Amino acid sequence: MTAQDPLVLSISRALLRHATRICPLARAKWIAAAESEIESITGSYELIRWSLGAVYAGYQERLCAMSLDEPRLARPVLTLEALICFLPSSLLWASVLLALANSRIPASDGLCLLTVASIGPVGLVTFGRVAIGNCSSTGRYEPLVLILLAGWTAVAILLSPLTPTPVMDFSWRDCVLLALLPLVGVTHYACLARKTRALHSEDDRA
Amino acid sequence: MRSHRKDSAQSVAVMAALLEQPRAWRHGYSLAKATGLQSGTLYPILCRLEDRGHLESKWLESAQPGRPPRHVYRLTPSGVAFAGEVASRHEYALPPLHQGGIKA
């Protein structure tokens, strides 16, 4: 079998097409450069290795572009992160609101729980705006507000067992879903906001 | 003081191969053969070198009719200086070059 074997060539071209699809646009010309070499490569093994190398390079560039403090992260990734980090708190917030409306819990406990879970809807809206809109929509004070809210949530949940009359029994799963995940989301949001501001100030200087 | 990022052995090998014929245009495949690197390692290195302004590239029409144009590379004057500096720092033994440069 030679490099000109149609099957090997078509596999090789399919691999390179895949590499082009996954590689960020800014680096696509390097995959095109690798593709331009395949006519000159002799040996089917060599050809497949060459194409697999291009796929590897494509994935490497894609992963670099997905660095956590990279403001130009893919929107689906940010949307998924917003949902994972803030949806559990949002659901708690909504259920407490419903229970309050139906007078199923005392008003004081309900209001306390509403403030504890408020990071959910606030985070979901703020982070979701960045995910669905664009990263330049991060405001100057939004990260600070989110940090304060997430901090209050974490303190309230973690210290809840120590209070004389706990409003709610939080298990370790609740601690992860309601305190830890919002903290992770807020931290990432603050990193994105800082990087975006740095990029904007670089642009202004330029 | 200028800080040096540690050069990988692969980057040094690519620069040494390019330095062998600094003003000749080289194909990616010939560089891969000269250095023993696979495309997945070679192209990110070439990419970084070009980003830093040490490398220039262009598409060159193939001498053989019916073949697509190929991407070729050579060191810029600043790249020649940088590659020389790196090569002397590492005292890198040049790998055997199987293919020469291409006349532009």
Structure characterization notes:
The complex is a heterodimer of chains A (206) and B (104). Chain A has 206 residues and is mostly helical. Chain A has two domains: 6-65, no CATH class; 75-205, no CATH class. Chain A contains eight helices and no strands. In chain A, helix 1 (6-22) runs parallel beside helix 3. The mean pLDDT of chain A is 81. With 104 residues, chain B is an alpha+beta fold. Chain B has a single domain (9-90), classed as Winged helix-like DNA-binding domain superfamily/Winged helix DNA-binding domain (Arc Repressor Mutant, subunit A, Orthogonal Bundle). Chain B has four helices and three strands. Chain B has helices at residues 9-20, 28-35, 39-51, 77-90, and strands at residues 26-27, 55-60, 70-75. The longest helix of chain B is centred in the C-terminal third of the chain and has 14 residues, at 77-90. The A-B interface holds A 27, 29-34, 36-37, 39-41, 49-57, 60-61 and B 27-29, 32, 38-44, 46-47, 57, 59, 62, 67-71.
The total number of structural domains of chain A is 2
How many domains of chain B? The number is: 1
Helix content of chain B: 40-55%
Q: What is the approximate shape of chain A? A: elongated
CATH C-level class of chain B is Mainly Alpha
What's the helix-strand series of chain A?
Answer: HHHHHHHH
Approximately how much beta-strand content do the residues of chain A carry? under 5%
Oligomeric state as shown: heterodimer
Low-pLDDT residue intervals, each spanning 5 or more residues of chain A: none
- H/E element order of chain B: HEHHEEH
Number of helical elements of chain B: 4
